[in-house]
Amino acid sequence: MPGKLVLATLALFAVGTTGATPYNPVHVGALGQGIVVPGVYQSGNADTSAVGVTNLCNALNVFWAFADTNDTVRARGRITLGQAQTYPFVLAQELAPATQDVFGTLIFVADENGDGKLNSADSHCLMAEAFHVDLADHDAAYLPTWPFNTFDIGSGQIPDLETLSPTQLTTLHSGVRDEPGADDLNGFYVRYSVGGDDSTRLVVWSAEDIAGTYAAEITHHDGSIAYLDLPLSNPHLNIVDVGTLSGLPPGFTNGVLVFAVPDDDLGNYTDTDGDGNGMGVYTVIQSPGLGAAQTIPASTLR
């Protein structure tokens, strides 16, 4: 069963923190009051994303919600976890069949004091590891998870966790940051491969609404460079098939896609709460020839 595979696969992932550096400033695998997991989906028990959610505090309720790329919350719920207990959250078992093949974002929040709210009184109790299980290919691809806390919410709290939604985050300090009014980072650098039977899924998640078309540069491994537009049509979660991008030159089968970090100072988004923006970006490269899917978080350069 996928639930058992979840528990077995958890042992493959070392729980730790990837510290912020000039090259890969993401902070995954750390403790948070909540966890956000963008880019998940399920096509039934044999092809599903799964998240191992661990509570390191006393017994508590964990509220969760799943929202699609249009920000519509398709499911909500809660689970009870004892101290040091891990729950195998398998999308195909937790979501209705109507959500099959629907990409979305999962969010989890620990209610430590049982008041049905998230505020500064709640501790950093949760950590999580996620992956996508494909039983037909005997493969489990790692998926990044980002911790958050009340500093990532403009109001500093979620007053009713029964209404939980990923859109309640207004920034993400554990992700790639754009500070208010500042041009801090010049671009995302993401690997792609679309040669032969390979395909690449680009996942772009943003706390703020960054819908728009962005100028992008694409390089081939032989050093060739081309330019194209990168459409990010959804406000918060965009799933892009790199191989179908308009303007991708023939023969550009493997290399790096580069695009600017959205900046409020350039009018790419409106900073609704004066706390800038935070993003999570990665690619999943499907390589049938290797019989494996490879997940590569985006890098940035200052």
Commentary on this structure:
- By secondary structure, this protein is mostly beta strands.
- The chain folds into two domains: 2-168, Hypothetical Protein Tm1070, Chain: A, CATH 2.60.290; 176-301, Sandwich (Hypothetical Protein Tm1070, Chain: A).
- Helices cover 4% and strands 43% of the residues.
- The protein has helices at 2-10, 91-94; strands at residues 34-40, 47-55, 60-68, 73-81, 86-90, 104-111, 126-134, 139-143, 146-148, 176-178, 187-193, 199-206, 212-220, 225-232, 237-241, 254-259, 277-287, 292-297, 299-301.
- The strands form four sheets. It has a five-stranded antiparallel sheet, with no helix packed on it. Strands 10, 12, 15, 17 and 18 form a five-stranded antiparallel sheet that branches. The chain has a five-stranded antiparallel sheet with strand order 14-13-16-11-19, with no helix packed on it.
- The longest helix has 9 residues, at 2-10.
- The protein is globular and about 55 Å long.
- The model is unreliable at 1-25 (pLDDT under 50).
Search tags:
2 helices, globular, single chain, 302 residues, 2 domains, 43% strand, 5-stranded antiparallel sheet, mainly beta, Hypothetical Protein Tm1070, Chain: A
